[in-house]
Design goal:
This protein has 356 residues and is of the alpha/beta class. The chain folds into two domains: 142 residues, Glycogen Phosphorylase B (Rossmann fold, 3-Layer(aba) Sandwich); 194 residues, Rossmann fold, CATH 3.40.50.2000. Helices cover 36% and strands 15% of the residues. Strands 3-2-1-4-5-6 form a six-stranded parallel sheet, with helices on one face. Strands 8-7-9-10-11 form a five-stranded parallel sheet, sandwiched between helices. Helix 8 crosses helix 9.
């Protein structure tokens, strides 16, 4: 059997498909399973042991991009896939799924494109408090796969040995060894609706860095937001005596593979609902997750319940969750009402629990 999986766009969304990859391999141990993904999220699945092949599809626009997709679709058709599962449902993913002409094409009942699939699965257009892994798992029901189970099928991202070596060398360069407890704080997000204030991150970083001699706080960000990480480090250091500045090393940009390796080593992760948070969920690291317009019920770490994790959110807001296009109150209150003290207390709680 030949199976093609399609999931374009976001890092977190691709992470949420990884439980399904394991389940599909268990269901079809001898199948050739191919994954079609865009470059930004390709490292998530590049080393996945349940896949036979990963195809990286560059993002392109306009007529040139459309013609390239048609050519790709013709190539996929020649490969004669038996089953195609479109985990995305966007126009491009739907088109590529249809172009394969596979006898079984599974997708959501999206308006205007449902006809492209032979098996259609209902998907609510409302922001329901239902985990994204479960929503994507709905597509597997027609294949006789049992319901989603985070204990048996957690989110996964294998370690890359070369990235582990690079991260170990970078930590050594900053004097960080096995005796230190590393706190990874990711301070950027895909859009401003999920971005906790940098000043609050700085306050938390300073408090944790000064709390114990063995703590080291590594601030990370997306490649295009290195200035945000620098601002947080500067703000935190301004609250500390000079002899403690080394507890906030400037580690520079990290690839997704390097971030995964760093999180394997970390004692705590702190960050908003973003791709790096979901990469953290593929590890055993204790997590403090900050939710603004999104809900933990939809995107909490999908892993064993025995893993330490705390979700911080603002309750009682009629505008939450939202579609992240316009902040109705205008002040991003769902995030700004999460206080630095709340995050500090949650972080210390998990750090204490982890050593018990």
């Amino acid at each position: 059997m030949k199976i093609l999986l399609v999931r374009l766009r976001q890092i977190g969304d691709v992470v949420f498909t990884t439980p399904a990859l394991h389940a599909l391999r268990d269901r079809y141990p001898d199948a050739q399973i191919t994954y079609l993904v865009e470059p930004a999220a390709a490292p998530i699945v590049a080393g996945n042991p349940y896949l036979s092949d990963v195809r990286v599809l560059p993002r392109s626009r306009g007529l040139k991009g459309f013609l390239a997709d048609l050519a790709l679709g013709r190539g996929l058709r020649r490969e004669q896939f038996d089953v195609v599962i479109d985990f995305h449902g966007g126009p491009r993913a739907s088109l590529l799924t249809w172009l394969t002409r596979a006898p079984v094409r599974i997708g959501y009942t999206v308006v205007g494109r449902a006809w492209m699939y032979t098996t259609r699965v209902a998907r609510s257009r409302m922001l329901l408090p239902r985990h994204s892994v479960v929503s994507q798992w709905d597509l597997l029901a027609s294949l006789g796969i049992a319901p989603a189970d985070a204990e048996r099928y957690p989110c996964e991202m294998p370690l890359d040995p070369a990235a582990v070596t690079r991260v170990a060398a970078r930590l050594r360069d900053h004097g960080i060894d096995a005796s230190h407890r590393v706190v990874v704080m990711h301070v950027s997000a895909g859009n401003p609706f999920r971005r906790w204030p940098l000043a609050s991150f700085g306050e938390v970083a300073a408090a944790l860095a000064s709390s114990a001699d063995g703590i080291r706080v590594i601030v990370t960000s997306g490649p295009s937001e290195m200035d945000a990480a620098a601002q947080v480090i500067a703000a935190a250091r301004s609250q500390l005596p000079p002899d403690l500045h080394g507890r906030l090393p400037e580690c520079g940009d990290l690839s997704l593979l390097e971030l995964r390796a760093l999180l394997e080593r970390a004692a705590l992760f702190i960050g908003g609902d973003s791709g790096p948070m979901h990469i953290a969920s593929t590890t055993a690291v204790p997590m403090v997750s900050l939710y603004g317009p999104t809900l933990p019920a939809r995107s909490a770490p999908w892993r064993s319940a025995h893993r330490l994790a705390l979700a911080l959110e603002t309750h009682g807001l009629d505008c939450r969750p939202c579609d992240q296009r316009v902040c109705q109150p205008g002040d991003f209150r769902c995030l700004t009402r999460i206080s630095a003290r709340d995050v500090i207390d949650a972080s210390r709680q998990l750090l204490d629990q982890a050593v018990q």
